[in-house]
Design a protein that fits this description.
CATH superfamily of the largest domain: Jelly Rolls
CATH topology of the largest domain: Jelly Rolls
Shape: globular
Number of domains: 2
Number of helices: 7
Order of helices and strands: HEEEEEEHEEHHHEEHHEE
Largest sheet: 4 strands, antiparallel
CATH architecture of the largest domain: Sandwich
Oligomer: single chain
Helix content: 25-40%
Length: 236
């Protein structure tokens, strides 16, 4: 039987607890946090929230892969980034009390933990350290965008594609005897958005990395030699 004087933190058993924005919550606020806490499983292709939806709280991805995408007035869209397990999403609209400027859609079967807006606001008000952690996530996102700008100027397109594949393979690849393999969870046009090139360029880049012998590409099936240690290439 649980002890009401010592409530259990809803994130306590999570692999990402130590880095959770809710980890420094005072014991007197844990019950409020638990009241607003929920978990939701998303099917592949299911949307967590749409662009211009009102913010419902702060979301943490505990499993899967989520695409954060913005839609333009002409109906086209741009994939801005991928959210991996442990990432917090939707927090900027929470902090600014405004609608979401992006859509969040699961690219793989995913699980999202949510703290409802009203309860999240109450917890943040009573725990300034949580606000500091949310601010730190904002700074990290700015730093990521800064790194992407630098990479676009200093790193070859080929290497940036390899880096994306390595990150995806590390998070979602399956081990076989001689290699890691995965079904690529995003389209080549989405890869083009992440790299900052045209879609046809991605097809040429796949041919180049396959010629190196580290990756084998067949449609969306990607195989990678274990411990490939890819070489950094020149401009591309």
């Amino acid at each position: 039987m649980s002890d009401p004087s010592n409530p259990i933190h809803p994130c306590g058993a999570c692999d990402f607890y130590n880095d959770s924005v809710w980890q420094p919550v005072a014991s007197c606020s844990v019950s409020v946090l638990s009241r607003g806490f929920s978990r939701k499983d998303l099917n592949k292709g299911q949307t967590l929230y749409y662009q211009e939806d009102e913010n419902r709280g702060v979301f943490c991805l505990s499993k899967g892969l989520v695409a954060l995408r913005t839609y333009h007035q002409n109906g086209s869209s741009t994939l801005l980034r991928l959210a991996y397990p442990g990432d917090i999403i939707g927090f900027r609209s929470f902090l600014e009390n405004r609608p979401h400027r992006t859509e969040a859609r699961a690219l793989l079967a995913s699980r999202v933990c949510t703290v409802a807006r009203r309860d999240a606001q109450q917890v943040v008000q009573g725990n300034p350290s949580i606000l500091a952690r949310l601010a730190s996530r904002c700074i990290s996102e700015i730093d990521r965008n800064h790194d992407r700008i630098i990479a676009a100027a200093t790193t070859s397109n080929k290497q940036r594609l390899i880096d994306i594949l390595l990150r995806l393979m590390k998070a979602h690849g399956e081990q076989s005897v001689e290699c890691l393999h995965m079904q690529l969870p995003l389209s080549r046009s989405d890869l083009a958005d992440l790299i900052g090139v045209q879609t046809e360029t991605v097809s040429r880049l796949f041919k180049r990395i396959q010629a190196d012998g580290v990756f084998h590409v067949s449609g969306r099936e990607i195989q990678m030699l274990v411990d490939p240690s890819p070489r950094r290439s020149g401009s591309g």
